[in-house]
Write a structure and sequence with these properties.
10 strands; alpha/beta; eight-stranded parallel barrel; 2 domains
Length: 425
């Protein structure tokens, strides 16, 4: 299985927007842009919503049939480890091997150091890179010391070996070459440097993982459902350096030729899409970008636009989210920044009409939409649990207002994500 040069993780909390999502990629293909769809959903999301991995496979297959899609597509077991991978084996053919929890940080902050013998062997194997290493695309090259390699190995080697264990477990069940593997290290405390990326990729190669995408931690904040927070110039510099390191590592370590970077929580990061687009052109590089909650938020937007019963559901979800904010925020603490002082009271929101609710929720930062509230948007992003608790009532509303919701989902992906992000061929 080969993942295309450009691919898009199209998460869907409730599994009802597969056709609308794929329609966006059909439009892209008609415009000369080939993007591989990857339906992604994590074990946590399945638990909260009450679905199973087989439901995601069914959604993808039905969307493909309905849209007449004749190109590759995949179903991603998102952020899995040895403890929960079993439930995804049959339904998935893309596995995001999440080993961030095993990365060694400070002694008091979790992770686990690599065995001293493994560190010593790794340093010895890769000692030829000590000194000045010239990598095309990095102007000043990389200065590498033995101590750097040792420090990197101590911090990351155990995590990479965990990825190897997960990969071999999946391969024993599905067979080598019958699935796509991604290694995810994005949910860590600090961004990886180019030197760290180089030796992480060396370790992945040593483990024999035919990795198709790697998700590093980038500089700045990638909060759920809102724009990038940070220095765009610094991000651009890191992104371009990572692209060059990946290209070098593919040749140097014998990694798969189609290896590319993956950006998680990539939806709505509008301020960096332009720089990413330019970098992909500059280096003729591929990209995998994961979206998820943005689809659920388009559902809420559609319900608010529908007014009546739909708007009432949206308002009730907001009211319950305010009341249960601590509970909802806890699992997402590292990827949200909600200023509670900027959240309007539920009594105030209950008086809003559909236009006001939509204006506050929709990610429109233009001067024409002064009502946009990123704190409201982040809160509702993590409030899908409340919609799930409504059960068939919520799903019935999605069916009833599908004619409003589906075009919003398609336009959001195509106009606001695909077009500004991926270079046209």
């Amino acid at each position: 299985m080969i993942l295309g040069k450009y691919s898009l993780g199209i998460g869907d909390r409730f599994g009802r927007q597969g056709k609308a999502q794929l329609t966006a990629l059909v439009k892209a293909k008609e415009a000369g842009l080939d993007i591989t769809p990857v339906w992604n959903k994590s074990a946590r999301e399945h638990t909260i919503v009450g679905t199973k991995p087989a439901d995601t496979r069914r959604e993808a297959d039905e969307a493909v049939a309905a849209c007449g899609w004749n190109n590759p597509y995949f179903v991603d077991a998102d952020h899995i480890g040895l403890k929960n991978v079993g439930q995804f084996i049959e339904s998935s053919d893309f596995f995001t091997l999440d080993v961030a929890d095993f990365i060694r940080r400070k002694a008091s902050c979790g992770g686990q150091p690599a065995e001293e013998r493994d560190v010593r062997d790794f340093v010895e194997k890769h000692s030829k890179y000590i000194g000045s290493l010239e990598i095309p695309g990095i102007k000043r090259g990389l200065h590498i010391t033995q101590e750097q390699i040792r420090t990197i190995a101590a911090k990351y080697l155990f995590a990479v070996k965990q990825a190897g264990e997960i990969y071999r477990h999946i391969a024993s069940a599905k067979g080598v070459g019958n699935f796509i593997a991604e290694v995810s290290m994005d949910e860590t405390d600090q961004p990886q440097t180019p030197v760290e990326m180089l030796f992480i990729l060396a370790a992945i190669a040593d483990e024999g993982i035919p990795v198709a995408t790697i998700a590093p931690k980038f500089t700045g904040r990638f909060n759920k459902g809102v724009d990038y927070v940070g220095d765009v110039t610094a991000f651009t510099s890191q992104f371009e350096q990572d692209l060059t390191v990946v290209t070098f590592a593919v040749k140097e370590f014998g990694l798969p030729k189609n290896l590319k970077l993956s950006i998680h929580s990539g939806s709505d990061k509008f301020s960096i899409y332009g720089p990413i687009n330019k970098a992909l052109k500059k280096f003729d590089a591929g990209l995998h970008l994961k979206t998820a909650g943005t689809t659920w938020l388009e559902e809420l937007t559609g319900l608010a636009i529908a007014a009546g019963e739909g708007l009432a559901i949206a308002k009730e979800i907001y009211a319950k989210a305010i009341a249960r904010i601590d509970e909802l925020c806890q699992p997402y603490a590292t990827v949200i920044d909600i200023d509670r002082a900027r959240l309007p009271p539920s009594g105030q929101v209950s008086k809003w009409d559909g236009r006001k609710f939509t204006a506050a929720l929709r990610h429109d930062q233009s001067r024409y939409n002064r009502d946009y509230n990123p704190d409201v948007r982040q809160l509702l992003h993590i409030a899908y649990k409340i919609a799930a608790e409504r059960g068939h009532d919520y799903l019935d509303a999605l069916r009833k207002y599908e004619a409003i919701i589906a075009p919003l989902v398609t336009a959001n992906l195509y106009e606001r994500h695909i077009k500004p992000l991926f270079p046209c061929t």
